[in-house]
């Protein structure tokens, strides 16, 4: 049976904290993960968060249950199985689908056979609506810019008239560079609510 080793470390300061996880597997396989928190916690709490995150990572990698039980027992931890985490990870797609189907039903009303034509508008509305868990729009988390519908008007708006297209590409590049940090902040907010 292959043996996996979990090494964790956590630290904190006034702005928040972070944890580092190194999972070493058989044949020299090393998996590293770093997580930062945008909320205050002390060093002990950071260490606990590191351990929990490492155990979640091990579980996601489907490391054998018996090895996990032995590891927890060596730390004096009584492991009580909880399915909440597993259900939340698997329920995300169903929750998104439920929201999309709900919006489709609202838009379609009596013309139920035209859902194929209405789906793009419903998806656009879903992507451009801030969600309660992250307080961000999925479109904004993906592209780090606000969605702007292409609308044809006789006169261009002031915003479009003064827009410098040469700077637009540069701004989009900058937004894409900082996108991972914004996603991480949204994930932390989402995790903090759970």
TrEMBL record:
Source organism per UniProt: Vigna radiata var. radiata
GO molecular function, one term: RNA-DNA hybrid ribonuclease activity
Protein name: Uncharacterized protein LOC106763601
Superkingdom of origin organism: Eukaryota
Domain RNase H type-1: residue ranges: 7-65
InterPro entries attached to this UniProt entry: RNaseH-like_sf, RNaseH_domain, RNaseH_sf
